[in-house]
Amino acid sequence: MKSSCSDLFGVYIHWPYCLSKCPYCDFASCPTARVDESLLWPAYERDILTIPQGRNITSVFFGGGTPSLMTPAFCERILGALSKRCSMAGDVEMTIEANPDAIDLSKMRDFRSLGINRLSLGVQSLLPEGLRFLGRRHTVQTAIQRIGEAHRVFDHINMDLIYARPHQTEESWQWELEQALDLGLSHYSLYQLTIEPQTAFGRQGVAEADSETAARLYRLTDTLMNEAGLPAYEVSNYAVAGEECRHNLTYWRGADYAGIGPAAHGRLGLYATYQAPTVETWLTTPMQQELLTEKERQTERLMMGLRLRQEGTPKTWAYAPHIPKACALGWLVCQGDRLIPTPAGTLMLNRLTLLLMEP
Questions:
Q1: Less CB within 10 Å around the terminal CB: N or C of the chain?
Q2: What residues have CB less than 8 Å from 38, skipping those under 6 apart?
């Protein structure tokens, strides 16, 4: 899948609710058993009306929180409002995130009937002890069952897994990843555990894997995924050719996207848009926006583009005098008008990005 920056326009819709808050989670989410969707609708509708008319939507992404908790009727209402505001590409990608304990076969079918054509399942671990450590509510058996059901409904399925957990060995991660590959998905999002101070893990003093261990696990992941025919197209995302997530490519290619719902961000031209961070404030607070300079937006695009393992970023987004140094360090290769990070450069991505930013 190769689309130019100008061809892409995504809409991210944030659903802030989940059944419980995981100890590693630093997203804007809050646990609740019941949601009054009628109270939320006016604010979602207000946000949708800020999207510039005439845009052609190439992807819609329901993220969270756990957006599979919303009713299909509410999802249909949102999609209907988007269709009235903008046109929908004929091959529009529509993704919804779900946890294995927050969706079932019937609900999958309901969402699919609305046009949702991609399911992203937050499995996070295929070991019982891994699930317990990560505070997940579902079992391994439930996760596998949901994936089997998803195969019956969706052509495009993604699984999230978290590795580099405390005391995790290369042997253990290899076994877990091989179990995941046996499930026959075409896309996997494989994230190293990071600890943010404001999370439960941060308050408890849980430590991240040291850099050497993290690098070994990352290289092992790359090797196993390449051997399985799912190379990395982004730092943490692996897919069969043609199965890449178009919505996330919209971010990484520096294209425009709208952010709908509490705490959602967007980029519309040179404008950065922000929604209020909590549901309570968002309900009564219109979207805010900030005009970026050309240099600020270009720097953002450089940072995102360098995450793309296969296509990289345009040379024009980098500070040209420093490109030879990055190449000499073995962090970067030049292919035509593109800059492609090497495996070594990917492991040093923050330093590579700083090097290529204009001083």
A1: C
A2: none
Strands, DSSP E only, in 218-270? Answer: 232-234, 237-239, 256-260, 265-268
Q: Give 240-244 contacts, CB < 8 A, sequence gap 24+.
A: 240/186, 240/187, 242/1, 243/156, 243/186, 243/187, 244/1, 244/187
Give, as one character, the DSSP assignment of residue 308.
Answer: B
Give the C-alpha distances (Å, rounded to integers) separating 161 from 6, 59, 125, 191.
32, 23, 6, 6
Residues 6+ apart with CB under 8 A from 65: 14, 15, 16, 17, 18, 27, 28, 29, 30
Whether the bond between 65 and the residue before it is cis, its omega within 30 degrees of 0, is yes
Contact 338, 311 (CB under 8 A): yes
Which residue, chain included where needed, has tokens 């991210």?
A: 12
